[in-house]
Design goal:
The chain is mainly α. It folds into two domains: 1-77, no CATH class; 125-174. Helix content is 43%, strand content 0%. The protein has helices at residues 34-41, 47-52, 54-57, 84-92, 110-120, 127-144, 150-159, 161-170. The N and C termini lie far apart (62 Å).
Length: 175
């Protein structure tokens, strides 16, 4: 039985929240508005998403709502309780939850880590080692990015002295 559309293109901007959910405070997310907060701090240039209706969902600094959006647009509120990303993915495929997935804001409990290590047949590296490895990877990414090159720094200084200062302030962390 054919539906009303031959094809649907469904764009999900994962982790690009546009305002908080009604139960945000329950999960420590009160005031969350990823896209809105980015738009307040950085100039956004999103002509295609704006034309599709992104800025029609809610006012966003620097973006203009489309008079005649080229697409259907919207923001969902979950029917299920829980943090929005994982629960939202389940709902997009038609699964509604009666209770939320557990959240581990202070890390996984020892019994879960022990069971996981047993299942995979090895010990996980400790948190300090992981953080050290992430820092080293970030350091090499920073150095390899060319951001330490004198020509890059001079060009950035001429284009955005503020950005150049911010990068210079962060640079010692990667030394």
């Amino acid at each position: 039985m054919p539906g009303p559309f031959r094809r649907v293109i469904w764009i999900v901007l994962d982790s690009v929240g546009i305002g908080e959910m009604p139960d945000a405070a329950t999960y420590g997310d009160a005031g969350s508005d990823t896209l809105g907060n980015i738009a307040k701090k950085r100039s956004l240039h999103l002509p295609n998403l704006s034309a599709l209706g992104l800025a029609n969902i809610k006012p966003l600094t620097g973006l203009t709502a489309a008079d005649h959006p080229k697409a259907a647009f919207g923001r969902c509120t979950l029917a299920s309780p829980g943090k929005d990303t994982t629960t939202g993915h389940w709902e997009m495929v038609g699964i509604h939850l009666a209770k939320p997935f557990p959240t581990f804001l202070k890390g996984f409990p020892k019994e879960i880590i022990d069971a996981f290590e047993k299942a995979i047949g090895r010990k996980l590296p400790n948190r300090a080692d992981i953080i050290s490895q992430q820092h080293q990877a970030a350091r090499w990414t920073y150095i390899g990015s060319g951001m330490v090159h004198e020509r890059f720094k001079a060009t950035l200084e001429s284009l955005s002295p503020h950005a150049a200062r911010r990068i210079a302030e962060a640079a010692p962390a990667f030394a």
